[in-house]
Specification:
The structure is a homotetramer.
Chain A: E1 2-5, E2 8-11, H1 12-30, H2 49-68, H3 79-82, H4 107-127, H5 133-161, E3 187-190, E4 193-197, E5 213-217, E6 220-223, H6 229-237, H7 249-258, E7 266-268, E8 278-282, E9 285-288, H8 300-309, H9 317-324, E10 359-365, E11 391-394, E12 411-413, E13 422-423, E14 427-429
Parallel strand pairs in A: 10-13
Antiparallel strand pairs in A: 1-2, 3-6, 4-5, 6-14, 7-8, 8-9, 10-11, 11-12
Helix pairs in contact in A: 1-4, 1-5, 2-4, 2-5
Chain lengths: 431, 431, 431, 431
């Protein structure tokens, strides 16, 4: 059976299959972690793993079962508040900064919560024949869980690294290809004109990806690949972190206050004789910085400062999307279970590494597209209310599930944040 | 004699005359204020009046005399750091938050500093025949001083209001026209297409106003006039400050933390029986809120929340500029010495109040135009390094000098700031 | 075999027996708690249960085995820093505020750490024949662990209460005796003169309990029992929390900032008609406030304000000790596994409830006794360096192990802290 | 005419004369300062000079004229709140942290306020024949103003030093005697026994100086003079600021957070070759540190750390007072207008420098004496409510007026404060 709703068409079997797969994957990602690992919260922006496991379940509980399934009795009335992230329309939510203070429900009880909700969801999905409006909510719930799979990895990486001795998430497999010296990046040009960007058409997309609309772009060029660790090291060696001329004023303040000397997760294990020897913490342990890999875990401020130093700039998100429209969505994603970027590059004159490996900071503040309408109801809070003091990132990373990424996907973070797997590529305006 | 430099043409007489006029005006604005009034700093964002008087002088001292006049010996070597606002290229600057801790030089000594620099400037302007490159710096210095004239009024208003009893800057003249009930605003439409915006051509403009470039705009409508106090009161009465659904997430946090219940400078002097009676603090004292005046001294967050509540949005800065290009730059500016907005409105179907009265928040984060190049040298720090987490305002206010405003002028502030004279007008995308 | 060291005499069998008992008790206290419960840290002052379990083990590892047992190889070199609370002489210590960020070692690994150290300790205790200096360290380690048994309960109470729904540590047994209306307290008088206070003689005591020394006390009276919840409620009803005249200036600031309206763990479940109905959170769940119980979990500031309101004051610690010297050390301690104060009182004219139930705030800042010498070596950091901005509490509580309390025991906390089980009794100077 | 009240006896002429003298002196101290100097507030703990001038006047306005003189009409009703320091019984008070935000009344208006109140006071003092209760308030007002004369100098010193270039209060007179190498300090012993301390008898004293009462002191020794800069330098050179073993735990935290390397107002102008050359900022400008002067402007934490390093301790306040009772109250006070300590010392075996030059930190937290009763009414807030987290200082300084100091005077500050003119002397318990 298939259902059609506001232009989206689902087959019951597909949705059921996808539901099972997504839910299973989340649990697999949490599996290597002890109850203690699942409880800690290393900073206000990060959430405990247990919270991710429960919140993604809460999403189906709240927006599907509670709203559409009359037979649903719920699991625990306190969960409504406990696992509400920020939806004012649902009522109060337990403060984000104190998620790490919750020891209940335990990991096992969270597992049980997932089991009960999954059972109810599968049953409901199997028999529901009524209005298909809620099928949309199921799909959003799956996309939502996909985002949290990435956050789970992002947060646990920060949580493990923050500890004495920086324990690992999983065994280190020797995998980094020897650095190939790295072909120099080249510029790929695009001509001025009216372009269409944003999501339109039949597939799923978040509300803020649309509507599809026209933009005018002046002539521009985009680098063939993201900036690598080797290139970024040159910026560091050239004193980039000590020279305010490259930095936005706010960026310089943050850099001073935080004492940044390199990307997050980098550590100088240099000798006393002065040579820096940079190691990088990965989910599988410390390893030497590989100059051919795209630099990752940098803030917008660092990306922007590097670009200025390199006499270039970051692409706007429209430019990025126009450039990316010329390529297939393929690359290195979370399915490979590597969870660290791989060296990128390839034939000159073409674009490489747009998708996967690292999210790419764009120079565009996160704003609504012309004609943007948030989803109706409480889910309208999903994106729209965060359109302030954030920058757009594009293209997904090695922590992103391939199936959750579209060429129009808009990710967004504050310019000072660094714990998401973000790098960048350069652009410039031709003169 | 006239001088031509990079496309700008100045006559020596004009520049001399303008220099004298601008410098005199600044002193007139400070004249009603005692040495004590000129010393206080009411918050980190505001600066003491004495500092404005000295810093504008420092600008000519540093960027004109010290760089171009070999005979210039300077006044006090400590001034270089003391009155440097933020130019890293000039060396260290005394911390902004501690400007109010400086009791030296005294008001009288600052006056003397101005006198000596003015004398040197007039002499140099009168005799200089060499390279005209520095004439550009003189003009920038004058535009810079124009901006500080507005800041001086903005800051002293906050400084006086912050005190017990809220003393006044000058005598209250009974002036507000009786509220006329206020014609309802109407929508003025513009068609989709490619438009040109930004500064081009011969006159002065700040670096970030250019280059002139093309943008594509979808069909849009702009309100015929800014939102009035009367309309804003309806938002307040409807519980707008208590309902998170209208607010950006960050805006709601600020509103909660600060306990906002209305615009800055508004105070409810209502009776115990519950009727609110809003008074507003002006530089000339407290007066009843006039429903026909444009609402002023609101943050971007409040403007944005109001717009959402009114089923509209703020115009982008490109939309604003396209709309404003249809009107003359005329309105109520600082030259009238009223320093408070006047009721606006007029014939339906036309645009009113675009210039003067209140700056208008746009929905556009402050970013570089395509092809933007900061001024060369230290003055490149003037604008570019602030392009982060700020929103653009357009159109000038009753605290802005008329001569310092262009249709392309871009003002910018953080979205939570309220002490600048800012209101807003609505826009919408036609569907 | 017995060992004599600096006046202390131990029998090997006694020490071995005591070691086994104390270590077992700690584990029993942690047993009801899941790994998640053992991981959370609800505020900077509190520590995770896992940390208490490991730190008390670290104490023996560091100060006994590592220093005295040459065959000891240690368990994990990172533990030295990881579980160091504050001993600068031992090297760096992991920051207290971030103890809740450590997910490693897990609860199970901590259990194993305890097992290995216990085995080594028992073996060493059984065979050691050399210098007896380290027997002192063993005894300190046991007293230290006794203190942490109390802290474990104190901290987990705060950690559970801080959560949504305030889960319990154990089953609620219906146990509070019906409130008996409570005999009024009476005054018990002592005459002026020179008294001896502080520890002297053969038994164990912490360094700061001595030396025994003379003090002169003017005539004073001490209340026959601690202030009860019923009496404290009168203070609350009389507006005690809203009247600054009763409060120390710093106390008033804290009360304002924190919004205190009653003791920590009290919650008003009153009806809309206005009558307050106070419930109190205990380790076994919420129950109605029992007017006959001593009030507990109040700060020094509240105790002091109450005393002023009651036209009295708190006793000095010398007065308290002189009064307490007239009674046996008996009362309601942690051995009863009730973990909540019981109603106190008894025959008029006598002193009741000095020991057990609630620690009693004294009016004495925590300072060194005349002639105080800290323990030699690193253990000198145990108490001396905290003699600043703290107040002394006396008498132990229902969370204190009976065996760890002496009439000379000095507990100390900052005046604003409330999460320890502290009440108070009144005193006055006769005129 | 003379008046007798609660044991105090005043002659009208004496009081009138003293009133005139004290009021004049305050104005003389402010005279060298511009209106700008009188407006700044360099930190929350310090107050603007204008505020001191007005607040001391407010004291007579509020506690004498408004309460006792029916003909008094007041000057400005807003002054009641504006210049209230902290008396809750008088109503609200303008926040201390924002005193520097008040530009009104101006210096001239404050002068006028003083003039009007002085006139009314002199008139009232000249004619009053009724109840003498208010004569006590006049005397308290004068002692109060004496304290503020010292605070005025203390605060303006901090305010001037905090500025770029550290301007001076007055001309530097070359005055420091050449350092005499400094006789070593010797110990002066006192025998154990019951002593009487605290104020008793006919003269004025603050409430907290009494009642006179008995204390028992064990044998103790006190150093013959305060610790000198030369001795303190040895502590610094020995790494005293880098070794936590000497510091209280809270002291070490402050030292780390603030980056202390020496006393406040000291600055190392050493050469690159490494030798430190310490200069000290005085109200008359920078000068070389004189090794023979008592060290000044150190916190309790530094005094306590030094004492530990020197294998000694600070005297208790009772010990200090017992020792001081053997000497006349004479020394170097503010009347000499030097405002900086002079070298101290003298014949061995005797006590020197107890009074004047520097306040001496004692090891005693500030608590009530046995039987302490605060003054009745609002003035009861003068001292009592500050008895928390402060330490007692004794003996006055070169900024204290001689007439305002008694052997029983108790000054008190938080242990981390350094901007008052405080040094210390050593003590020890004989064993």
């Amino acid at each position: 059976m298939s259902v059609n709703f506001e232009g989206r068409l689902w087959s019951r079997e597909d949705l059921l299959g996808r539901f099972r797969k997504v839910r299973r994957r989340t649990e697999e990602l949490a599996a290597p972690l002890s109850p203690e690992d699942q409880t800690i919260q290393s900073m206000e922006s990060a959430s405990p793993v247990r919270w991710h496991l429960a919140h993604t379940t809460w999403f189906f509980d709240t927006f599907v079962l509670s709203m559409h399934d009359e037979s649903w009795e719920g699991v625990d009335p306190s969960f409504r508040e406990r696992f509400n992230s920020y939806y004012q329309g649902v009522g109060p939510s337990w403060p984000r900064a104190r998620r790490g203070g919750l020891s209940r429900p335990t990991s096992e009880e969270v597992r049980e919560y997932r089991r009960v909700v999954d059972e109810a969801m599968v049953s409901f999905l199997s028999r529901s024949t009524g209005s298909a409006r809620w099928w949309a909510a199921v799909e959003i719930g799956l996309e939502h869980e996909g985002q949290h799979q990435e956050l789970l990895l992002t947060d646990i990486k920060h949580g493990l690294w923050s500890q004495l001795g920086s324990p690992v998430y999983g065994e280190l497999r020797r995998r980094s290809r020897p650095a190939k010296g790295g072909r120099r990046a080249s510029w790929v040009g695009f001509q001025s004109g009216i372009y269409e960007v944003g999501h339109g058409g039949p597939g799923f997309a978040f509300d803020h990806e649309g509507p599809r609309h026209r933009v005018f772009l002046e002539d521009f060029e985009v680098a063939s690949r993201p900036v690598t660790c080797g290139e970024y090291l040159e910026f560091m060696i050239d004193g980039g972190y000590d020279d305010p001329q490259w930095w936005l004023s706010q960026g310089w303040e943050v850099r001073q206050a935080e004492g940044w000397r390199g990307p997050l997760y980098w550590e100088d294990r240099g000798t006393d004789h002065g040579d820096a020897q940079w190691q990088v913490y990965t989910l599988r342990g410390w390893q030497e910085v590989n100059r051919a890999e795209p630099v990752a875990f940098v803030s917008f401020f660092e990306a922007d400062a590097y670009a200025r130093w390199a006499m270039a700039r970051l692409p706007t998100e429209a430019e990025w999307e126009v450039a990316a429209a010329t390529r297939e969505v393929e690359g290195h994603f979370a399915e490979e279970d590597l969870f660290h970027p791989r060296p990128v590059g390839g034939a000159p004159g073409a674009l490489h590494g747009l998708f996967g490996d690292v999210w790419e900071w764009t120079g565009s503040p996160y704003v609504a597209y012309p004609g943007f309408r948030p989803w109706t109801g409480v889910l309208g809070e999903y994106n729209g209310k965060f359109m302030c003091n954030q920058y757009v990132l594009r293209g997904g990373s090695c922590l992103t599930g391939r199936e959750f990424l579209r060429p129009t996907t808009r990710n967004y973070f504050s310019p000072e944040t660094r714990w998401q797997c973000a790098g960048f590529r350069l652009a410039r305006t031709m003169s």
